[in-house]
Structures are given as C-alpha cells and as structure tokens.
Prior knowledge:
Number of helices: 28
Number of strands: 20
CATH topology of the largest domain: 2-enoyl-CoA Hydratase, Chain A, domain 1
Distance between the termini: 45 Å
Number of domains: 4
Radius of gyration: 29 Å
Helix content: 40-55%
Oligomer: single chain
Bound molecules: nicotinamide-adenine-dinucleotide
CATH architecture of the largest domain: Alpha-Beta Complex
Amino acid sequence: xxxxxxxxxxxxxxxxxxxxxxxxxxxxxxxxxxxxxxxxxxxxxxxxxxxxxxxxxxxxxxxxxxxxxxxxxxxxxxxxxxxxxxxxxxxxxxxxxxxxxxxxxxxxxxxxxxxxxxxxxxxxxxxxxxxxxxxxxxxxxxxxxxxxxxxxxxxxxxxxxxxxxxxxxxxxxxxxxxxxxxxxxxxxxxxxxxxxxxxxxxxxxxxxxxxxxxxxxxxxxxxxxxxxxxxxxxxxxxxxxxxxxxxxxxxxxxxxxxxxxxxxxxxxxxxxxxxxxxxxxxxxxxxxxxxxxxxxxxxxxxxxxxxxxxxxxxxxxxxxxxxxxxxxxxxxxxxxxxxxxxxxxxxxxxxxxxxxxxxxxxxxxxxxxxxxxxxxxxxxxxxxxxxxxxxxxxxxxxxxxxxxxxxxxxxxxxxxxxxxxxxxxxxxxxxxxxxxxxxxxxxxxxxxxxxxxxxxxxxxxxxxxxxxxxxxxxxxxxxxxxxxxxxxxxxxxxxxxxxxxxxxxxxxxxxxxxxxxxxxxxxxxxxxxxxxxxxxxxxxxxxxxxxxxxxxxxxxxxxxxxxxxxxxxxxxxxxxxxxxxxxxxxxxxxxxxxxxxxxxxxxxxxxxxxxxxxxxxxxxxxxxxxxxxxxxxxxxxxxxxxxxxxxxxxxxxxxxxxxxxxxxxxxxxxxxxxxxxxxxxxxxxxxxxxxx
Length: 692
Ligand code: NAD
C-alpha cells in the first residue's frame, strides 16, 4: 500500500491501479482528498505497468459530497475541476467504484470518470438545491448527457437521491456488481475494459440525449410549472433549470461556464448561507451538552397513548409506522371509535395515493390496541399523555398512571404550554417524566420539542431523542417555560398581529406580509385553519376581543365557513367586509385612531419581538443554542428555510438594527418591546446571535 497523503493511497493489482480514498466519516471532497486524487491519477498515469485506474473509497460510502465547510472560504489545494479534467483527460480509463452515497461533488467526480460501477445499495443524487445552490462541477452538464434531460432536470430540481438500479437503467452506471464485492467487481470491470479495448468514454462528448431534447422546451416549462409552489421564494431552482437548459443549448465547455456563473452567483447569497447554516443546525440539534451519545437508553418496545383526539391519533401513527405496537386509551367508546377511524382513514388515504400498500395499512392497524382504562397501559415502556390542555386533568391522569405504569416506564406529556415539573410532581418518578411536544398533524410535522424537566433523568432524555430519530422527527431539547420555545415565541407574533389590526392594518394585510416573507400562511389564516374557538367558551365570552366577537357570531374559522375570512365551498379565503366592519367598530369603541401601517412595520412588529423572545429563551437556558430555536421555527411553524430561522435572520438584518427598532417601538408602544439583555449584550460585543 503506497500512501499518497493522509487520506488517499494507490496500489496496483496486475495492470490495474486502485486509487483509494479514506477520509472518514463520509470521504467528503476536502482539499486533502482532491490533492490526493490529483496526485494519484498523475502517478498512475506515469506508471507504464498501469492500463486502467479504479477509483474507490474505504469506509461506509463513496465520496458523499463536497466539504460544505469550505464554501465561501478562499480556495485551497487542487480544485475539483482540475481533478475532473485530469480524470476525464486521462489516457487510461478511470472507473469509479461506488458504494454508499455518491452525492453532489462526489457524483460529479464519478461523472467525470470513463465508467461507473456500483453495488445495488448505492445511492446517487445532486442535492445541491437543498443547500440553496446548484451543482458547480458539471452536475447540470454531464448528468443530462448520461441520463437524458428530463431525468437530469428532475434529479437536479428535486435534489432527491435515486437508487443504483435506476442509475443503471438510466445510463449513469455502467455495471452493477454484487453487494459487498465492490472491489472485486470493479477490478473485473476494469479488466474487461482493458481486454476488450473499450473506448475512453468521456461523458462531455456524449451528445445523443442532449440532441434529442433540443427544440423541446416542454420539459423545462413543465418543471417550472410543477415546482413554482414548492419553491416559492427560493432562488436556486430557477438557476438549476437555466443551467440544464445551457447543457442543451450550448457546447459542453460553454455550458460548464454558464453552470459556474450560476453557482458563483448563488454560493454567497443570504439564501445559500441560510441553507448551509440549517444543514449544520440539523446536525447540532441532536447534541446535548451533558447527555453524551454514550448515555444508556431504555428499550421502547411498546408505547401507550392517552387520548385519541387530534394529537393522540397522529402521535400513535408515528410508532405504528416503524412497527412499534401502541395501546391507545380513551374515556368512552365513541371517542375511541372516532380516534381509531381517523387513524384508519389517514392510512387508507395514503394507500389510495399509492404511497402505502393495503397490506401495510392492515399491519399497522394490527399493531394498534384500543383501551378504555389506563390499566391497559401497564406493559408499556413509554406512555404519552395527549388529553385536554388542563393542568388538573393532566395531574389526575399522571397520578393514576404512576400507579399503573411499570417501574422504569417513561411518562410523557404532549402539553403545549403547561409546566412539566408540576405534572411530574404528582408522580413518584419525576425523573422519568418528560415533555414530548408534537406538532399538528403529528403524523406529518417533523418537529418534536423534547421538554426536559428539572428532574428528568439523562437516560430518559437520551431514549426520547433516539426514539425521535427512529420515527423520523427532528427533535429539539427545550426547557420548562410557558409554551416552551415555539409557542412562547409564537405568542409574540400573535399579540402584535392582533394589535396591528386594531391600529390600522387588516388581517389580510398582515397575512400577505407574512406570506410574502415566506411562511405558508399568515397568522389570521392560520387561526382560521386551527379554529378560532380553541380555548373559547360561549359562557365566558364577553366580546372583549375580535376573536371572541367572531366566535360569538359563529365565525369559528374554516370549519364553520367563516372566521377572519369568508370561505367558499372549496375553502378559498376571501377578505370579509363583515370582519372589516367589526374591526373598525371595535377600534372606534376603544378610541384607537387608526393609521396607515407600512408592510415594513408589519414585518418588524411581528418578527423582531420573536427574535427578542428567542434571546430571552437563550438567556434563561431554555434552549441549548440559537440554532435549535431556528430548527424549531423551520420545522414546526413554517419559517422559510431560506431565511435560516429567526435567530439567523436577526444576524442577516443585523442585531444592532433589531435592537434599535425594539428600542424605538418600546419608546412609542411600551413594555412589549423591551429588549432582552442578551440582545443588548450581543450588540455591545458585536457578536452574532447564531453563535450563541
Ligand atoms: P383533543 O380534544 O382533540 O383530544 C383530547 C382527547 O383526550 C379527547 O378525545 C378526550 O376524550 C381524551 N381524554 C380526555 N381526558 C382523558 C382521560 N382522562 N383519559 C383518556 N382520554 C382522555 O385535543 P388535542 O388537540 O389532541 O390536544 C391534546 C393535547 O395535545 C393537549 O395538551 C394540547 O395542548 C396538546 N397539543 C395540541 C396540539 C394541536 O394542534 N391540537 C398541538 C400540540 C400539542
């Protein structure tokens, strides 16, 4: 074994050189790897005994992608383009041998090789779009030449991976080799290339698939149409389409130049920076300072759910989906029946769309056991309470549960706001009590706030975090406070939205600004969707807020056909003249002189107090790091990922600007805008919130 550098080596098997990359964990294309590849190809080229070169990786994957941490920094070492040029221009055939993932730059490197072989479990993809950029090393130029324009467009625009089998069928992979025998298979393929004098196949020169697409704009138009909604507000997806168009319209080198320009235009934009930041935030969120990865976890073989309402049903599905049996308990048969029917209907609907086999529907339903008594939960390892949001009821449930649950079982609450420590205090095992705050619909939404109580044991936290991963959630650890991280910050936005419509804006003005910022909907549309009557009761309603007045008029949101908006049969929202009048009358009664409120003020009033609250949350240690707060907002509340979350956004705007505005608002509008000391500190020390 001859080492080239610390991450690459070159060996010879007869007349085949094997260039191996070994740069754990994922063989990312760092400067070191690029230098090693460059030197390795040169050495193999210079060795007269070598007739072909196999490029292969040690460890769990082929080169899984670029080294994202290098983005935006001054270039170091051989460029990927240099390495690709050396490979593609090599007089000896280079064969990429692929296992694990060949994503992004890794896939682009493989596309510069003359041939590619892979094991069936390998995955391919150009996921750059998910980082707000486009491929920068030929992924938009070579891939269409390999697999055709339509499929290359789909791969580049969706960023989704595809299997080795498809890659083979489409022409990106020349040979599939037996699982676990990649090296042998690649050597055999290389031998065949030598023995049968297979040509040096340069992807850049393949033109038949490109020519077939020339003059056909339909596929580009279709992709633009089909993705307009999904990518509203994003920049990179249009750029990637333009780059693939260039592959069709221009000679290879010019197409590469166009791709490069598009890439360079994007790589330092706030959007791309935001999306890179989120990529790392999603990885950091799992790390807990005092709960190391080595913390023992408890086996969760059976889960109990209390309450089969909106949340209980959705929560159950998460576990059924991964094969964990669930017992769900209600107080009365009709509620239980309703809950079970909803779960079945959800599965049936998924099956109808072809995303689930009918047999899977039955398997999952077969794992679900109903009960009308908490006693049914005595053999569960984890029990999640999802009954009404009422402290007395929750305490009563936990008191009983403590007696029924087996020793060592974890007792969790799905409460949205209530104090987990108070709930834990009625049990004899506060160390085994934790909050698991799912978001609605719980089978769909990715976020889970894991609420750590004062006494929650570390293995309990580790178990719940691990389980969250297993059921496909992204979990953020938060501390006990009213509404935890997400709802506590949401309250700031809702309060300002409510004030703004009295001071001069209309609900649809506020919603438009928030929608244009990138949220899927504004606060009033959201309230209409959730139902205005959550927590409202006829008996206590005193027309003291717009919401109360609307509920009293039976305008309870989408479900009653009217709320802040009027709805037609297809639930399309229209601004409501009735609501406009209600607001104007209410404001007049309160003696408010309405004024014109700018879109800028609407945005700042809704968002800056959230940022300020985020700073308070950090100050109080209720979130571990600013990026966890951003993860909560992106995954639980629809904050646009290209704006990186509220804390990242504050840095984009400038913490000093946010602080100055808060002070300004405080001077004219009072306490609600009092700056958090941490925000003042960050500004004084010229720091960034995202680093906290
Ligand atoms: P829901 O009213 O839809 O369901 C509650 C269910 O609990 C009802 O079916 C009720 O019959 C049942 N129940 C009440 N007492 C019970 C008992 N002692 N034993 C067994 N079942 C009992 O309410 P939901 O929206 O599902 O909310 C449940 C919890 O989840 C609340 O704490 C809520 O704050 C929280 N939560 C709700 C949402 C949301 O968007 N709906 C989101 C996150 C968290």
